[in-house]
Write a structure and sequence with these properties.
mainly alpha
Length: about 140
């Protein structure tokens, strides 16, 4: 019985690519010691007076910055197209994804899709932060 080693090598390389992509994702991810943008700006105590709605618009806290989350946790793959990730700003690659809607994209990020693990590389990101990153990337791809 003869074994075709060329086919086995090709299969091995195909199986190795997602594993390497996952390793890249995990190595670029958030560490336990890092804080999220929400943790950095969160007050130590919840104020009992003067709710945010009473403040002028320019003094209200900024919403979660999707660009910062992208730069910290998403660009390792979405800037290079690693493991088939759509590149930021590639309108053709993003069009079919954008057509599904932001909720479907958020679900893919939360649950993982193909080589991207659940939450991408930011295991400590909240749903709000993930949504902000999705909205930032969609804005760049539309």
């Amino acid at each position: 019985m003869s074994i075709d080693t060329t086919q086995h090598r090709r299969f091995g390389a195909q199986a190795l690519a997602p594993a390497l992509a996952l390793l890249l994702l995990l190595s670029a991810g958030c560490s336990e010691k890092e804080t999220t943008s929400l943790q950095e700006t969160a007050p130590a105590q919840v104020p009992t007076e003067s709710p945010v709605a009473d403040k002028p618009a320019d003094t209200q806290p900024a919403s979660t910055d999707g660009q910062k989350i992208y730069q910290k946790s998403c660009q390792a793959c979405h800037a290079t197209g690693a493991a088939g990730a759509p590149k930021l700003g590639d309108k053709d690659a993003w069009a079919p994804r954008i057509a599904k809607g932001n909720d479907a994209l958020l679900a893919s990020v939360k649950n993982g899709l193909k080589a991207m693990p659940p939450k991408g590389t930011c295991m400590s990101c909240s749903e709000e932060e993930l949504r902000a990153a999705v909205e930032y990337m969609v804005g760049q791809g539309s």
